[in-house]
Amino acid sequence: MKSLKRLLTGTTLAILGLITTSSQNVYEFARPADLVSMQMATVGIGDKAPDIVMRDPQGTIRKLSDLKGQIVLIDFWASWCRPCRMENPNVVRTYNTYKDAAFKNGNGFTVFSVSLDQNKAAWMNGIEKDGLVWDNHVSDLQGWRNAAAGLYGVNSIPATYLIDGDGIVIKKNLRGQALENTLATLKK
Fold it and tell me: Comparing 31-35, 67-71, 112-116, 157-161, which segment has the lowest mean pLDDT?
């Protein structure tokens, strides 16, 4: 009887393990609330933004540090992310409004887009379709294993960091009108 019970317990655990493993991709996008609240815990307001060095769609290396002196929105997104795609028009509008503005601690505003895509064609199509006109688009095409996302502690997207001209994080997770309102307060 004990052998049968052990066998059933072992079989049940094996089946549960297979179910959990095979459904992992489904849960990759449905992040638990506690993980979302911990988002961006690695890099905080007041911290120096770690440099991001990755290739753009044409293979050119782009560095976040090359944008020093400007106000920069680091925008973690992906072409498959519906909330990201819905936010893109707000980012484009804000970019067009503030790209040449003079700020208290930075000249001009730009966006440094970090894609969590794995498919280069889908990534490039998303950039084109959403009219993401700034120059700085990077990805290592590793999806959730993106090196920059790991460095910044990003575990849900969209995720944003606003950094000043000295490369210091001044705000996190700005979306919609909140981004535009924050930039308005930073103008000279």
Answer: 31-35
Judged against a pLDDT cut of 80, whether residue 19 lies above it is answered with no
User: Which residues lie below 8 Å from residue 168, measured CB to CB, with a gap of 6+?
Assistant: 46, 47, 48, 49
Q: Find the range with the poorest average confidence among 12-16, 19-23, 32-36.
A: 19-23
138 and 169 housed in the same domain: yes
Q: Which domain holds residue 99?
A: 32-186
| R_g over Cα of the chain | 20
Domain co-membership, 1 together with 80: no
The number of distinct structural domains making up the chain is: 2
**Stated pTM of the model:** 0.78
